[in-house]
């Protein structure tokens, strides 16, 4: 994810821009009505995807039966048990930073939209627990150590094989007091705190364990400040290198701890550090590396409920985020393709589409309950408008796009051909392909296909190569899929 500069936002709206917004919405509604999607089926498949990404010893109720146990000795070289968790994408590395963000967003999806998940709610909760069980193992030795990665990315990316067959290095990487990582630690604290809310009534004992650990991890993150990519550059860069700084993760972690615990100390921390930790930076950025838009939307819920007047600056930022993504008046950082897809520069655009759409939908609900709308120059962004914008993005993903294909492999009649997990019992490590793209190209027709998945997506002109060597467009990730779970849950109940 590319570094984004701080910008100010003009909320003035010319009549031409207002007309362009209305035209976009009319076209969006026409396209959506022409589609008619089975959001329940897509929801089921979006949750099933996480079972395909599982690492460790699989449970008896594993639904994707072609997957088997894998990486059963992870952590042994460091004398710890780090089995379990998720492979984040098409490789076999367990990257702690995006995995924690995935669990935060999946927990948020369950919190806000679990009531719309029907029979899939239990599977979504299991998906959260599979990740948090691993995060508990990774944080067991905090503050002395927090384990943030298992596997050597260079070794893994030079070898195309299934996780069940892998023979690449399973090196363990950690941060500690002398080698800080406030970014990954802050996100891990957020994930544990958010999940504690999910399990509060379902499993109170587990919920307390998650919250207690979140408090300890956040304390370590705040006391020993620094970016983990400075401590572990050769291991985590350029894969999940923190280019945005660790400050947003500290605010993000504190916000979730306040929501989970209700402790005033975290609210005071947020107020005290609002400027120091740059809450107003890049307000329309949200993903594994930059939490600013998410921070502002999350905290704004309390402001809209009339419970936090001292946090009103966060609502101003959240309103600015909303205005900055409206078609016709969006900030230069945000574009819309001719087919209506939200687009931000950088790799795997669907991560922006699903994460920002999730925030649009979540904020629309908060506004609805407070009977509010967001003033954007000469018009208002109403809750219904924000819902339509979010739905347009979901429908584009599912097939309402110029190419007429679904970007969720396994959903619909015509979809992207799929990403492979490597042929069964094959080792394509010798000779070692020189690049990740070459590794992708070696996948054969006999390889197992990972479905369902949501891929990286098309470019700003709606073009999509549908070819494995273009891995930034065709590779799935857990953090692209997690916010989609919440979106699909809502629209399955409100089509």
UniProtKB/TrEMBL annotation:
Residues annotated as domain Glycoside hydrolase family: 39-488
EC assignment: 3.2.1.4
Top EC group: hydrolase
UniProt-annotated catalytic positions: 466, 475
Reaction(s) catalysed by this chain's protein: Endohydrolysis of (1->4)-beta-D-glucosidic linkages in cellulose, lichenin and cereal beta-D-glucans
Gene Ontology molecular-function annotations: cellulase activity
GO biological process: cellulose catabolic process
Signal peptide, first to last residue: 1-34
SUPFAM superfamilies membership: Six-hairpin glycosidases
Cited Pfam families: Glyco_hydro_9
This protein's UniProt keywords: Carbohydrate metabolism, Cellulose degradation, Glycosidase, Hydrolase, Polysaccharide degradation, Signal
InterPro entries: 6-hairpin_glycosidase_sf (IPR008928), 6hp_glycosidase-like_sf (IPR012341), Glyco_hydro_9 (IPR001701), Glyco_hydro_9_Asp/Glu_AS (IPR033126)
Family: Belongs to the glycosyl hydrolase 9 (cellulase E) family.
Listed PANTHER family: ENDO-1,4-BETA-GLUCANASE
The protein's name in its UniProt record: Endoglucanase
Source organism of this protein record: Dillenia turbinata
């Amino acid at each position: 994810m590319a570094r984004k500069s701080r910008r100010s936002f003009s909320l003035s709206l010319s009549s031409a821009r207002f007309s362009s917004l209305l035209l976009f919405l009319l076209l969006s509604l026409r396209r959506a009505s022409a589609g008619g999607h089975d959001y329940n089926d897509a929801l089921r498949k979006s949750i099933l995807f996480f079972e395909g990404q599982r690492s460790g010893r699989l449970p008896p109720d594993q639904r994707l039966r072609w997957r088997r146990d894998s990486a059963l000795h992870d952590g042994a070289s460091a004398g710890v048990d780090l089995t379990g968790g998720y492979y984040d994408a098409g490789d076999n590395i367990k990257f702690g930073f995006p995995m924690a963000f995935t669990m935060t967003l999946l927990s948020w999806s369950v919190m806000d939209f679990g009531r719309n998940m029907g029979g899939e709610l239990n599977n979504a909760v299991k998906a959260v627990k599979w990740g948090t069980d691993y995060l508990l193992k990774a944080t067991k030795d905090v503050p002395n150590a927090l384990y943030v990665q298992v596997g050597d990315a260079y070794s893994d990316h030079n070898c195309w094989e299934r996780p069940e067959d892998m023979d690449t290095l399973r090196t363990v990487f950690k941060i500690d007091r002398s080698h800080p990582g406030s970014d990954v630690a802050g996100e891990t604290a957020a994930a544990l705190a958010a999940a504690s809310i999910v399990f509060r009534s379902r499993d109170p004992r587990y919920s307390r364990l998650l919250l207690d650990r979140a408090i300890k991890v956040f304390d370590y993150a705040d006391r020993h400040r620094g970016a983990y990519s400075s401590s572990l550059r050769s291991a985590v860069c350029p894969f999940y290198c923190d280019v945005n700084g660790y400050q947003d993760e500290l605010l993000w972690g504190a916000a979730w701890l306040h929501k989970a615990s209700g402790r005033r100390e975290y609210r005071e921390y947020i107020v005290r550090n609002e400027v120091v930790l740059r809450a107003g930076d890049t307000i329309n950025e949200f993903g594994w590396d930059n939490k600013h838009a998410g921070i502002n939307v999350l905290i704004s819920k309390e402001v809209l409920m009339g419970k936090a007047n001292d946090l009103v600056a966060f609502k101003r930022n959240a309103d600015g985020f909303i205005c900055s993504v409206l078609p016709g008046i969006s900030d230069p950082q945000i574009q819309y393709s001719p087919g209506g897809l939200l687009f931000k520069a950088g790799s795997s655009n669907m991560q922006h589409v699903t994460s920002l759409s999730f925030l649009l939908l979540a904020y629309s609900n908060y506004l609805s309950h407070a009977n509010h709308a967001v003033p954007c120059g000469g018009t208002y962004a109403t809750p219904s408008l924000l819902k339509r914008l979010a739905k347009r993005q979901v429908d584009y993903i599912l097939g309402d796009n110029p190419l007429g294909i679904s970007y969720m492999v396994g959903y619909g009649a015509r979809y992207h051909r799929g990403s492979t997990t490597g042929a069964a019992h094959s080792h394509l490590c010798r000779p070692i392909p020189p690049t990740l793209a070459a590794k992708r190209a070696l996948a054969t027709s006999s390889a197992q296909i990972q479905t369902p998945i949501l891929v990286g997506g098309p470019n700003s002109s709606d073009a999509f190569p549908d070819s494995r060597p273009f891995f930034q467009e065709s590779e799935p990730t857990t953090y692209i899929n997690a916010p989609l779970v919440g979106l699909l849950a809502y629209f399955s109940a409100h089509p």
